[in-house]
Amino acid sequence: MSSSTANPTGPVSVIIPTYNRKEFLARAIDSVLSQTCRDFELLIVDDGSTDGTDEFVASYGNAVRYLYQDNLGAAAARNTGIKAARHDLLAFLDSDDSFAPEKLAVQGAAMAAHPEYLVSHTDEVWYRRGRLLNQRNKHAREGGDIFRRCLELCAVGMSTVMARRKLFDELGLFDERLVCCEDYDLWLRASIRFPFLLVPEPFTIKDGGREDQLSQIHRVGMDRYRIASIIKIIDSGELDLQQEKLARLELVRKCTIYGRGCLKHNREEEGGRYLEIARQYRHAAEADSVRN
Hints:
Oligomer: single chain
CATH topology of the largest domain: Spore Coat Polysaccharide Biosynthesis Protein SpsA, Chain A
Strand content: 15-25%
Number of strands: 9
Structural class: alpha/beta
Order of helices and strands: EHEHEHEEHEEHEHHEHHHH
CATH class of the largest domain: Alpha Beta
CATH architecture of the largest domain: Alpha-Beta Complex
Distance between the termini: 58 Å
Number of helices: 11
Low-confidence stretches: none
Radius of gyration: 20 Å
Number of domains: 2
């Protein structure tokens, strides 16, 4: 889709993955089609929906591109969109979130003004069951070197991101082995090497608190996936000495909290396994400290 109002940094491919969310999808699609910047294409990646999503999306005609795949998960759906996208600049939107009208224009202008950045993110507004949430300080967005923040929690909202294709050429795609926290994993890998441009306006509106969301489905044991991501980056050999120190400390912290939680809920074998990981990495960190 294009018209006289162009994105100053070039056309954008907006990727919306979806799975059985027809009732929410209209808000997401309409928020993209209502952008003040008109130089974009909109891709809907249907991850095996069975609720009539295909017919609903067809009602938009040529305003959207519809891609269907078997149910392979959110990471695979986003990867399908990245591979199919026609443009160099990519934006992501979850199917139950929405954009403010100026998002593509303002964020695109910011990236045009800072061509040295491969990725940017914005602030966001959170609703839970229709009620506005006051975000805690730990969720405040940061720009620049955000590696430490990305270790602690998912510091980049998926629906706030705009990235150049080169970012994925350098890093690879979302890890399809992860059933959740695939965004935590990717932004952690990105933050090792690249600074993030922060556009501080709240241009994404999030709608949370529902049982069908991955953060709810996997809320018990979610840190297992973050722990796996941290181990992966430590083993990658890509970290400098300070980054490795931070990663080991956060790994020990997460494994200790998760392991104790397992023991509290009578999952002794699992808890013992994660406490042993914490012990091993704590011992390795202490040994490195003695040597240095």
